[in-house]
Amino acid sequence: MKISAVARTNVVTCSPDTPIREVAEIMIKKNIGSVIVVDPAKPTGPIGIVGERDVVKAFAAGLDPSTPASEIMSKLLVTIDADAHVAEALLLMREANVRRLVVTKGGELYGVIALKDIVYDIPLLKNHRRLFHQRKNINT
């Protein structure tokens, strides 16, 4: 299965100067685990990623909430092409020790794929999840 079939394409982005307080608020409001930092001159050009762990570390270290995202973002972006196979994504995640990959198509930002996106798409787990919810509804 291609990554394009699983990746989330409604990518939430911010600029490098977005305050980390705002990044955290976006993550909470949108119920997401990361925000892609893009070059303001090229909105389809990712330059970093801020994950929930980055935000937690920043606040735990006592950083000012107005600190720009560029101060805490991971600049080492691990990217994968939208046409790559999901198995390649899993291998890349393991090799790079990351839980999310930035998905590109033609060098442009296309989406994000997280380990949980892949796991939730496994047919066996989909069936198990459906049965679990059916059983839960019967018991209530």
From TrEMBL:
User: Which InterPro entries does this UniProt record tie to the protein?
Assistant: CBS_dom (IPR000644), CBS_dom_sf (IPR046342), Diverse_CBS-Domain (IPR051257)
In this chain the CBS domain maps to: 7-66, 73-131
> Keywords of this protein's UniProt record, alphabetized?
CBS domain
Record's CDD domains? Answer: CBS_pair_arch
**Keyword Protein biosynthesis attributed:** no
PROSITE patterns membership: CBS
What is the protein named?
A: CBS domain-containing protein
The species this protein was found in: Pyrobaculum aerophilum
